[in-house]
């Protein structure tokens, strides 16, 4: 087991960080989040088309780079550090992982190269169907659903679950807590769709969800890193009563607790990404453990950061509230605390 990134992986991190420093500064993030689109499509094209980062886990024969989930986790960490408003989680994670897990030759040949290149934006959503070619119901919270060109739907049917592919859903962008990650409601009202043949739809869903948890954990680790760095730097330079506030015991302990939680989160996220590549039998437990610890830890760090920044941390002009909002929505994106704990308990057979 190797949890420390090697030289090539660190070079990947440096390349992504350099790109984001040039094209995803805080002012740009705020500009995009306030726009009607809510997604930085030019940045997405650079990430996917020019650098090929959307196809990291896609085999080379299908237009990807044939890397792995560890490399993808590194990219997600860097995107999470800057709250990049791009559809990476929806398209390069959810959609790509669903296509790979479904293992349908026609679907793979048609979608994977275009998802890997960024030509198509995809997402995954739930629904229901009482016909081989029609979807009904709605997906209340589809990640980047408003810009998705193709939607892979995990649907309830009269004879169990099944997977469908559609492009015809009605989309309603939602106003949510986190303005840097857009969600949309997808309505399926007799929507035409193509059923995907799959021997075990439930197993595909579980795998997609586990890999989504790994990806979200990596993104959250990147956000935690930025929160810790900015809080510690502020504690060094903010002076009250003639002393930097970092010299006071309460602030010292607060920063130390944040850093300790961050280091634990790094270990869990890296182990989960390693399991996704090298030990798939360990992935379900690793993903559930990372999800249960990292989501709440990120939110606590972000909340403590607002407190430790004092009055400025509560202002709209400071970025602390953006990380606070991203942390809370990330914590709940795949389920509430009770569902997360039940999932972990099930993986532990308790």
Structure description:
It is a single chain. With about 350 residues, the chain is of the alpha+beta class. The protein contains 11 helices and 11 strands. Helix 5 (about 90-100) runs antiparallel to helix 7. The protein is globular. It starts with 6 loop residues before the first helix and ends with a helix.
Strand order of the largest sheet: 8-2-1-4-5-9
* Fraction of helical residues: 55-70%
Low-confidence stretches: none
Mean pLDDT: 95
The topology string of helices and strands comes to: HHHHHHEEEEEEEEEHEEHHHH
SS field, number of helical segments: 11
Estimated share of beta-strand residues: 5-15%
CATH superfamily of the largest domain: Acyl-CoA dehydrogenase/oxidase, N-terminal domain
| Number of E strands | 11
CATH fold descriptor of the largest domain: Butyryl-Coa Dehydrogenase, subunit A, domain 1
Instruction: Calculate the terminal CA-CA distance, rounded to whole Å.
Output: 27 Å
Largest sheet, if any? 6 strands, mixed
Radius of gyration: 20 Å
- The CATH first-level class of the largest domain comes to Mainly Alpha
CATH architecture call of the largest domain: Orthogonal Bundle
User: Which structural class is indicated by helix and strand composition?
Assistant: alpha+beta
Give the total of domains: 2
Broad shape: globular
